[in-house]
Automatic annotation (TrEMBL):
Pfam families: BPD_transp_1 (PF00528). Belongs to the binding-protein-dependent transport system permease family. Keywords: Cell membrane, Membrane, Transmembrane, Transmembrane helix, Transport. The chain crosses the membrane at residues 12-34, 80-98, 110-129, 141-162, 183-208, 260-277. This is ABC transporter permease subunit. InterPro entries: MetI-like, MetI-like_sf. Residues 73-274 form the ABC transmembrane type-1 domain. It comes from Paenibacillus sacheonensis. GO terms for cellular component: plasma membrane. GO terms for biological process: transmembrane transport.
Length: 292
């Protein structure tokens, strides 16, 4: 059936608008990438647009030359790996009972509102810090994981997804003798791939980008995660620990090029991981938001 003129006009305008919107999102990242590979004078003069001017890798050499950089990568990988597992496990264990009806789980609504309350109100920075200090996990990897081990937003997203699954699945599993553990791990989890992929992406991004907690909970720079290390390398440069080679590199690196390389290195892993999760991400966030 031939499309009408109005439909083709609308479709063309829609494609044009979305293409422009995509460019608005992509071009800043392209500019940052070009800036990170440009020399000091070109960046300072504002000559860099979407292509490097005076191509150089000095900014990356300056950042990657530090042993602390490799240490921070190891810490971040540990945090992302352990943190994602802990977050997903606790999210599943909390979302499953909260997804039940009040007739199946008494005080279910009360518990749900307690979790929502923690989104709106918290004890503040000082009580948060003192609690972590008194538990004895300061300056350890667990100080970066346990304080945020229960992500309430992810719990709400997943429990709404669970509530959208057919109740007949629970009933048939119960008739066959399956308990709650069986229903959760053999029915709910396999059917929740889109929602779990969405939560996984949220969790990885949060752990990868978080820098403030590493700054105040880690006592030595060797224990800093990558985002914290990159934030401090330009703000608190230790000139006494630099060698002559470092100064040779630093004289050709401007604040703009160094920050651009920092931004791109920090965003690169997420950029690489997103295409593999994108097909689940959109479906998961929509289903988890509207069903319930």
């Amino acid at each position: 059936m031939k499309a009408s003129v109005s439909y083709r006009l609308f479709n063309g305008l829609n494609i044009t608008f979305l293409s422009l919107l995509s460019l608005i999102c992509i071009l800043p990242l392209v500019h940052v990438l070009a800036l990170s590979f440009s020399n000091n004078s070109s960046a300072a003069a504002g000559l860099v647009k979407l292509w490097p001017v005076g191509f150089t890798t000095d900014a990356y050499r300056f950042i990657l030359s530090k042993p602390a950089f490799l240490d921070s990568i190891v810490v971040t990988l540990q945090r992302v790996g352990l943190g994602t597992v802990v977050n997903l496990l606790l999210t599943l264990l909390v979302a499953y009972p909260l997804s039940k009806e009040s007739s199946d789980f008494r005080f279910r609504t009360l518990y749900a509102w307690i979790f929502v309350f923690t989104i709106l109100f918290n004890g503040g920075l000082i009580p948060w810090y003192m609690t972590i200090k008194w538990t004895g996990i300061m300056d350890t990897i667990w100080a970066l994981i346990l304080p945020g081990a229960v992500p309430v937003f992810n719990i709400i997203l997943l429990l709404n997804f669970f509530r959208g699954l057919p109740k007949e699945l629970d009933e048939s599993a119960s008739i066959d003798g399956g308990g709650h553990w069986t229903i959760l791990w053999k029915i709910y989890v396999p059917l929740s791939t889109p929602a779990l992929a969405t939560i996984t992406l949220f969790t990885i991004v949060w752990h990868w980008n978080s820098w403030f907690d590493g700054l105040i909970l880690m006592k030595v720079p060797e224990h800093f995660p990558l985002s914290t290390y990159m934030q401090t390398i330009l703000v608190h440069i230790d000139l006494t620990s630099m060698s002559g080679k470092d100064f040779e590199v630093l004289k050709d690196v401007s604040d703009r090029t160094a920050k651009a390389s920092q931004i791109f290195l920090g965003a690169l892993p997420i950029i690489l991981a997103y295409p593999f999760l994108q097909r689940y991400f959109v479906k998961g966030i929509v289903l988890g938001s509207v069903k319930g």
